[in-house]
Amino acid sequence: MTELQGRVAVVTGGGGGIGRAICRRLAAAGAQLVITYNRDQSKARAAANALAGGNHLIIGAPVDDAGAQAKLAGAIAEKYGRLDILVNNAGITKAAPHADLEALDDETIDQIFRVNWRGAFASIRALRPLLEADDGGVVINISSIAGRTGVGSNVAYCASKAAMDSMTRSLARALAPQIRVLSVSPGWVNGEYARRMPRALIAEQEDKTPLGRIAEAEDVAEAVYAAIAQLRFSTGDIIPVDGGRPLG
Predict the structure, then answer these.
(1) What order do you get walking across the sheet with 85-88 strand by strand?
(2) How far apart, in whole angstroms, are the C-alpha atoms of residue 218 and residue 176?
């Protein structure tokens, strides 16, 4: 498939499980990938080496570092001269019971919002000129149903994803028509975080999900691809990838 042939896509935090799946899917459709990382260059390099096609780039660019984001924009302009797709995938969390209000200190709360919300905003801000050029671009924010349900790893994480969805709507209006902005909103995903949880907890989530399982990273990647390549008249929308979990 070559629907994205000649297109350039940035995936922040592309070395993680969901990020790798998104990179694979976009590269399979012909895109050239820019994979950013915070500290773990080896994961990003392994992700790039596994991609179809060539001319991919890995670059250290923490999303909460404005200077690094500016350098990222410069590197993309120099290497490719264009940018068509930004996937804001980088994010962090920490398990903390919602009822334990002392479980999240101020530093942790600030870090979650700095990466999950401010980082996504900073990436859009830095890359906007490239995304607006040529035929315009698309931004996909990787959100979570936690932003809608208020059920997730901790209160701050849920709030950060709700803020991301609100930003999606605001920027879809503000950046139109040159840039489309959408959120892809998974439920539980069978990845590194889920595998650290007790199997009984995951089984409970599967039982409460109408489609009988939690998502795979590839499910998220397919939704990202569809939002980019197929839902061309959609912007400002929150696309669930949750197997119907809120219905359970």
Answers:
(1) 57-60, 32-37, 8-11, 85-88, 137-142, 179-186, 238-241
(2) 29
Estimate the share of the chain in helix, then strand, then coil, as percent rounded to the nearest 5.
Answer: 45, 15, 40
d(CA 186, CA 92): 15
State the virtual CA torsion across 22, 132, 237, 234 in degrees, nearest 10: -100
Non-local CB neighbours of 167 within 8 Å, separated by 6+ positions: 117, 120, 121, 141
Q: How far apart are CA 118 and CA 106, in angstroms?
A: 16
Report residues of the chain scoring pLDDT below 50: none
DSSP structure class, residue 116: I
Asked if 59 and 11 touch (Cβ cutoff 8 Å), the reply is no
Residue keyed to tokens 């208020």: 150
pLDDT tens-digit profile of 31-80?
Answer: 999 999 999 999 999 999 999 999 999 999 999 999 999 999 999 999 99
Please report the domains of the chain, with CATH numbers, ordered by start residue.
Answer: 8-235 (3.40.50.720)
Q: Look up residue 36 and give its amino acid.
A: T
SS3 167: helix
| Predicted structure pTM score | 0.96
Please list the active-site residues.
157
Q: At what angle do helices 155-174 and 106-113 cross, to 10 degrees?
A: 30
